[in-house]
Structure formats: structure tokens, C-alpha cells
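Model: Ready when you are.
Researcher: Fold this.
Model:
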Amino acid sequence: MSNPRKVIVITGASHGIGAELVTAFRRLDYRIVATARSIEPSDDPDIATVAGDIGDREVAKRVVSEAIRRFDRIDTLVNNAGIFIAKPFTLYSMEDYAAVLNVNLNGFFHVSQLAITEMEKNRSGHLVQVTTTLVDHAISGVPSVLASLTKGGLNAATRSLAIEYAKAGIRVNAVSPGLIKTPMHAPENHEALGALHPVGRMGETSDIAGAVLYLDSAPFVTGEILHVDGGQSAGH
């Protein structure tokens, strides 16, 4: 019997790293459920889209339900959705705090809990979180407490879930990017931002997609935080 085609759920899939992930996994013939607040319907019958705020549990339920309805399984979940607000710590508003926790933590919790429930039925699955190397290597002049608070929590949760579900056949990993060329960063800032990395340049969205592809193809790797950051976490 031939293996069924794999199904991947990608959050934050409308642009930047998320859009690159959709392209990369379709090249490998994965069927995809792509979700983001403003995502548009796809003409590709192997891409299902769900628009909405992943921090809302009802949206997360719709995402997982659509994967099962359309494709009958979930093999991989990439928790890519995230927001970054750079402000001095004392200037963060309660609205800033709530917004970052809603996407970075609530979104992860809701869709991961629901996806793992489906993966357990097949005793197989893989979660990948997209975090940030700022967790391990803070940069003077780039205030990032809320990113460190939330994405650092995801790194810790990655290791914890990897151990909890290892014997259930479910792997859990994370990719920890440096500064990547996405719509978040204006082109005129790329040179200065690139200089923050030891390799002297910013990363490409394809660098992150390549790391996720590697982890998804590595059955003996779990609990790993894979830094894709131009050497930033290693030092300067």
C-alpha cells in the first residue's frame, strides 16, 4: 500500500516566511492548510486556506477541522504566526502585551493542542515552532522583551512536548531565525540589520524554509532548537 500524501498546516501563511513555507512544501507535493488573518482563497485544490486570528480558539478549530475534512489527516504543523513589537520595556502598553501573547502564545497553544489530538490517532506527527534567536542573544538597541518572553516560552515548550510525546511517535522541534528579509523590515534597513549577524547579511525566507524542510525529513531529531541566524547566537 502506498503512503498517503503528507498534510501540513502552516500558520501565518500569507506572506514572508509563511508564504515561502507554502511554496517549499507544495514543491514536495504536500497538501497544505494555510491560515492567516488576511489569507486569500487558493486556486490550487491541494491548498486549503482559513482566514482568521489563530489566537482565537474557534479559528484554530476551523483550521484543524478543514485539514481533516479536506485531507483526512495532519502530519506536520508549523507554528509560524507571530508578531514582534520593539519598544523599551516600560513603554509597552497593555494592548501591545495582549496582542503579542495572543498570537505568539495563544495561537500556538490552541492549534497545537488540537493538531496533536489528531496526530495521536495515527501515532505520528511533527510540530515545528518558528521562534527567534533574540531569545538566546539579545541585541543592544533592539528591545525585545515580549519576543523573548513569548518565543522563549515556545522554545521551552518545544523541548517539553518533544519528551512528552516521543513515545507517541510525535516529534517537536523549533527553528530560531535571526533577522530575515521579510515585509517586516524595510529594504533601506537591510544593510544595517545584516551587520548585526557575524556573516554580515540578513537571512532569506528560503533559509528558514530549508531548515523546516530538514527537520520534517529527520525522523531521529526531536526537541531541537535549530538556529538559522548567521552565527548570531554563537557570538560576535
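Researcher: Now this one.
Model:
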Amino acid sequence: MAESLLPGEAPVSLNEARGWLRLGATVDDAVVAGLVRAATNICEAFIGQWLIVRPAEEIWPIGGGTARLKVRPVIGVDGVALLVPDGGETPLTEEDYRVVLDRDGSARVTVEPTGTADRLRISYRAGIAEGANGVPEAIRQGIVRMTQHLHDARDNAGAAPPAAIAALWQPWRRLTLGGGQ
């Protein structure tokens, strides 16, 4: 499953982060870009949702149950395929599987076991916004502040993130109880 941001899809631009950090020169751009990616990953882990829509793929065992997709908010399932142990793959039509999108952005895919297939490949898209401008400002501000925190804490690795960042992200936080399918 895709876990990291695709190039160019950060919710906070390099110029925004550099401006917040009061860095005029572009000498540290690679470092700042890395901090923005890290802050974005921290944010997504904290709120339990992807920020910018991007593709995801998961492989699930077929057990007669339902596959609960791991990433939220799911905006659409693009395809489901049956995988057989010898490496073969059979794409399913939309009539062969059932998708339920829940109000919290999670999704479930149900397929009845058929033939020798033992796994499913589920391709889908997930994210809060189509682009950086669609990400809520409080989330973006938290990412900028987390970028600053990471930049300032590079010499003091034990420093805890400020509570103000959690307060900015808290309204979008989605927690799940347990894991499993």
C-alpha cells in the first residue's frame, strides 16, 4: 500500500515553510522539504486520514469476510482483482464485489470466494482534498508549526511537540478501535 506522499503533493509549499522559518536563502531547501514531508506524515498519522487525494492499493486474503480498507477518507474504489497462488490475476466487474463507504470515510469491500483465488488486490483513492488549497487551514498551520518544531528540535531530539499543534489537528482526528478485517 502507498504510504508516503507523491512528489509535489505537499499540503504546505516550500516557500510557505521557508517563510515561516524565516529562512531567506534556498541553501537548505532539501532539508526544509524533508521536514515538510515528515510533518505531513506526522499529521496524517495523528488524524488518521490522508490529506491530499492519491491512489492506494491493498492486498487482502479472501476469507469470506469483508476487507476494511486501511486509509481514510476513501473517495472511490477503482478496481478489485482476484489473485491466485501461481501469480495470475483476474479483474472483477463492479457486479462481482460490494463497496460500502461509511460516514467516517472508511470503506469496506466484500467479495464472495471463487475458484482458486486466495487474495484480493483492491485499488482505490483516498484523501481529504484534491490539492493543497483544499486542505483545511488549521491542518496546514499545524504542519507549518510541526515543520518549525522539527527544524528547531534537530539539535534537541528529546523535545516534545507543542500542544498547540495537536489542538489544531484534533477536530479532524479519526480513531479506530482495534484492527483486523
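Researcher: Key takeaway?
Model: The first helix runs from residue 14 to 20.
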